[in-house]
Amino acid sequence: MTVPTAQPSPNPAVRGRAPRIGLLGIMQPLYDDMIPGITEHQARYAARVADRLSGVAEWTVAPPVRGREEAERAVRAFEEAGLDGVLVVMLTYGPSLRITRALTGARLPLALANIQPEPSVSASWDMDDMTYNQGIHGAQDTANALVRARVPFEVVTGDWEGPEFAERVGRWARAARAVRALRDLRVGVFGYPMNGMGDARVDETSLLRVIGPEVHVIAPGALHRTMAGLPEEPVRELMSWEDSVFDVDPRLSKEEREDHARMQLGIERLLEEAGCGAYSTHFDAIGEDGRFARLPMAAASTLMAKGYGFAGEGDVLAASVVYAGHRLAGDGHFTEMYAMDFPSDSVLMSHMGEGNWRLAREDEPVRLIKRPLGIGGLADPPTLLFRYRPGPATLASLVALGGDRFRLVVAEGEVLDSPALPSLEMPYGRFRPDSGVGGCMDAWLRAGGTHHMAMNTGRRAEDWRVLCALAGIEYVPV
């Protein structure tokens, strides 16, 4: 299922673009007289490393750095180029004090690749070989400086030509991309958050300062005016696209579908104008406004499928983590735990009617249905109905602990191939945690995990751990 070109372009923050990483090779001029040409020799080594890792990121390789000014100039160039992170590679031993200012002042996520040109020590080695392969103590010196400066960073030790090293660097690069995206994120909130819901509340200043998302309030009136001002052509195109992708309920009237289409297009236009990569709506804010006929349920599902972060009830934390899930794994999905099913050791996952249909089962159509909904006090909202695709999955909940402390609670498990629930008219699936329902729920509640969360397909706990390490977020697997 793909979005045709007639539709607005997918959110550029999510799909298609590989992480863009700068490789900063460190050495020093001490060895120039001892080994003429060593700088050029090790520059070729750095280029080979980048070429080997070309499958996990796009690389910008700086000339070998041998002093403080060169290091600071290279890092500034990476930042000005809009890269996602910096991989530091010791080309020889490089004293940390020559690069400490550059790295501790860097605005980009960092990783230290503890590698060397040759994977094994050979009896044929001479002093040249020893010098080429002595990066480990430069890595120790540099890591010590970063720890003392309290700068978050990841470490990847291994044979740079092996698949495990590429996999780990790829994981870090995706996490760096997600962290960078969060630092630039603006979350649009339509109206106001749900009254009385405490686990979604956050000090917006702390969220902006520590992780990066900025909250941008959008008045419901702006949405109403935007909907009314839309021309007919994009509305028809959206409805035609839905006809080609979804199994459309014949009970849906043209009026209902046009109103829903205008709401979706209006939301997206306002998000684009405000530079928002994520958003949240609250049913009361829409329902009590008095100018809307229905809630934007199907709109949330398709906008998530296009790469926008989303959460219900004005939940900025959950919208941010869904957005990060897009950048980390490509398929962020908003959900919550509805009920426990002890016989299957699983939890029924769903929400009022929003869900990323890219997570739908492939053996069943995604249905656009006419669906009665009492919440909000409005007319029936067109809703996308599907069951989650069976297989490995990961849940992640962003928790505000007060002050500048944030925690990510993460659970790995499996979406079960469970029987359908014919009366449930919203996206759903059953998630079995690896730690079991009892163990997972006990640990989730002790950690303060929220009731809104992101889901990704696959086992993504390690991806989230790396993101937390780079972003200064406490990581709690349950």
UniProtKB/TrEMBL annotation:
CDD domains: L-fuc_L-ara-isomerases (cd00578). Keywords: Arabinose catabolism, Carbohydrate metabolism, Isomerase, Manganese, Metal-binding. GO terms for molecular function: isomerase activity. InterPro entries: Ara_Isoase_C, AraA_central, AraA_N, AraA_N_sf, Fuc/Ara_isomerase_C, Fucose_isomerase_N/cen_sf, Lara_isomerase. Residues 332-474 form the L-arabinose isomerase C-terminal domain. It comes from the Bacteria. SUPFAM superfamilies: FucI/AraA C-terminal domain-like, FucI/AraA N-terminal and middle domains. Residues 202-324 form the L-arabinose isomerase central domain. Residues 39-181 form the L-arabinose isomerase N-terminal domain. It holds the Pfam family Arabinose_Iso_C. This is L-fucose/L-arabinose isomerase family protein. The lineage of its organism: Bacteria, Bacillati, Actinomycetota, Actinomycetes, Streptosporangiales.
